[in-house]
Amino acid sequence: MPTPTQPERNFVRRVDLTSLQLFVAVCELGSIGRAAEREFIAASAISKRLSDLEATLHTPLLYRHTRGVDLTPAGETLLHHARSVLYSLEKMQGELSEYADGVRGHVRVHANISAIVQYLPEDLGSFASAHEAIKIDLEEHLSSEVLRAVQEGAADLGICHAAPGSHELQSLPYRQDRLVLVVPVGHVLARAPQVAFVETLEHDHVGLHTNSSIYVAMHQAALEAGRSIKLRIHVTGLDAMCRMIDNGLGVGIMPARAFELMRGGIGHRLVGVALADAWAERQIRLVARDFSTLPVAARTLVEHLHAGAQARPALAAI
């Protein structure tokens, strides 16, 4: 990794956080005077810091006029980066302050809806009971977004459906799930022991987000069959899908275990029919940029989640 040059080191030393904070305040309020009032500092002091900042960067950042200020193109770029730096510092402060309260680990996890609905409540619950000093931040995202977050460092660990060769990430097996066709009990397909996806294309579908792993697999299967999906409505959650199907808006495809967990309430009026297609059997994987370099808390969580998959053969790395 190249070492910083002398000008780069001088730049880092001369751009202080207070100046960045005041610059952002001026940009947000559109006026040095209003920023001075909010930040409890003299307007002349802010103006001096902004002038020093412009001198350090060798470019004007603001257009000054009688009504306030506007950003130059360079100012817009600095505002974007300044907000990012200040946000990261606030987040760092928040995470580090938790150690004073006894939290000795912090793991950022992004997972898709299938993992969150079917398996993570129990698995994370048992982990939290055994490791009370480790805090887990869990966010739900589409599988493609989970992979991107791990790749960009926004998440320590991802849990999602990931096709082999889709990304240069390391992966470990976590769980398997099976997709089923959900239909009302009186539907023509309700009594079938299993059904091929192509048979469902005669009917209206209630679908998930077009970028979800389930919809992508459905779309690909329809293309291969030379058919199209009669998509009547998009929903963002599996519970919403069940309600739409229950009210006669179509059929839907979702993970079998998720459907079983939702069978309370309207579930007795719906039936899950196994899909005969090979793509209906899916693997949920743990993904990271490098498992060996994860913090101890994150590696501990990976070991806990991966333990249930040890008896199954490992699948190809992403």
Describe the 3D structure.
45% of the residues lie in helices and 22% in strands. The protein has helices at 6-14, 17-29, 32-39, 43-57, 73-100, 113-118, 120-130, 143-152, 197-200, 213-224, 238-246, 256-261, 296-307; strands at residues 62-65, 68-71, 105-111, 134-140, 157-161, 170-184, 194-195, 204-207, 230-234, 252-255, 270-275, 281-288. Strands 3, 4, 5, 6, 7, 10, 11 and 12 form an eight-stranded mixed β-sheet that branches. A two-stranded antiparallel sheet has the order 1-2. The model is unreliable at 311-318 (pLDDT under 50).
Question: What is the topology?
Answer:
Layout: H1 6-14, H2 17-29, H3 32-39, H4 43-57, E1 62-65, E2 68-71, H5 73-100, E3 105-111, H6 113-118, H7 120-130, E4 134-140, H8 143-152, E5 157-161, E6 170-184, E7 194-195, H9 197-200, E8 204-207, H10 213-224, E9 230-234, H11 238-246, E10 252-255, H12 256-261, E11 270-275, E12 281-288, H13 296-307
Parallel strand pairs: 3-4, 3-5, 7-11, 8-9
Antiparallel strand pairs: 1-2, 5-12, 6-10, 6-11, 6-12
Helix pairs in contact: 2-3, 2-5
